[in-house]
Amino acid sequence: MQIILFGASGFIGRNLVQRWRDEDKTVIAVNQTGQAVEGAAQTFSIDRLRDLNFDPVKTIAVHVAAYRYDSSRFELKQSDIFVQNVALNNKVYQFCAERGLAELRMASSVAVYPAHLPIMDDANPIDLNAAPHAGEGFYAWSKRTAEIMSYWYEKQYGLHTLGFRFSNPYGPFDSVDPNRAHVAPAFVMKALDDNPVFPIRGDPAVERDFVYVGDVVEAFDRSLAERGRTDYYNLCSGGTTTLLNLAQRIMKVAQIEKPIESGAPGAFGPTIRKSTNLRIMKDFGMEFSSLEVGMAPTIAWYRENFRV
After folding, report:
1. Assuming Cys at both sites, which of 118, 177, 211, 212 could form a disulfide with 294, CB separation 3.0 to 4.6 Å?
2. How deeply is 298 buried, as exposed, middle or buried, from its count of CB atoms within 10 A (0-12, 13-18, 19+)?
3. Which domains does the chain have, with CATH numbers?
4. Cα–Cα dist 123/125, whole Å
5. In three state form, how does the secondary structure of 92-143 look?
6. Angle in degrees, CA 194, 200, 204, rounded to 5
């Protein structure tokens, strides 16, 4: 099996490369610059896709690439996120169609769900007339657009997509910039930095579902055996944790004590975001790690790689 991995230099991508390298799968990495990715057999920039040589019958594409906005363009970040992610998705789908690929695995997000839902259930279709949360609408629609495209490409080109709607993934290889990392790794850096207090922006009672990247990688790996269908699964732990409890549990695993301060403004989307993971557990035989189990390797990695 050969895997063309879009976004191989990113957080999820680097974890996938490490997993598949250990399993002796051949990974062709695609990233923005073409800079070599450790563990990949070859690396190409997104602008050199025509240079890739492979057998489409034996190859699966995996798309975990995403645009992270430039903080210097804060006022336009929402527009940037939508425009850049949609353009990236177009390149991936067009490449797969042109080269005759039949299987694609893709990262999506629970942000695609309408904002009013008490529980985001992947057993039910998304109502595209119901708006996602206003604070992440541009990002949500970039993901919704990719999901819509997948059904067009299946019908027209026979390209089958299995997508996974992430819910706050965390783990090694995320950004070491607290302003760019996902929520849980950003909290890990707050525990490890020199600040004598642990600040929480926004409401500490906000609840989120945090999923360990090792479980994300496991889902993608198991999906490689599937063929011939387009479907989307929530990729989440199935339980929520408040931001306050997240900070407390991270510090407990790290064996660090700091007083927690909250009250600074923050934009976190809905107060509570709950997802069900029953379908992915049933269809893929998945089990999910506890926060403490996932945090142990995450904190160990940040202790090696995070510099204050």
Report:
1. 212
2. buried
3. 2-305 (3.40.50.720)
4. 7
5. HHHHHHHCCCCEEEEEEEHHHCCCCCCCECCCCCCCCCCCCCHHHHHHHHHH
6. 150
Contact present, 10 and 172 (Cβ < 8 Å): no
What 3-state DSSP class applies to 29?
strand
Please name the residue that has the structure tokens 């609408």. 137
Amino acid at 246: L
Q: Identify the H or E element spanning 6.
A: strand 2-6
Written as tens digits, the pLDDT of the chain (308 aa) is: 899 999 999 999 999 999 999 888 999 999 999 999 999 999 999 999 999 999 999 999 999 999 865 545 556 688 889 999 999 999 999 999 999 999 999 999 999 999 999 999 999 999 999 999 988 899 999 999 999 999 999 999 999 999 999 999 999 999 998 888 889 999 999 999 999 999 998 889 999 999 999 999 999 999 999 999 999 999 999 999 999 999 999 999 999 999 999 876 665 567 888 999 999 999 999 999 999 999 999 999 999 999 86
| CB proximity list for 55: less than 8 A, separation 6 or greater | 2
Q: With beta carbons less than 8 A apart as the criterion, state whether 251 and 189 touch.
A: no
The one-letter amino acid at 290? S
In the chain, helix, strand, coil percent, each to 5? 45, 20, 40
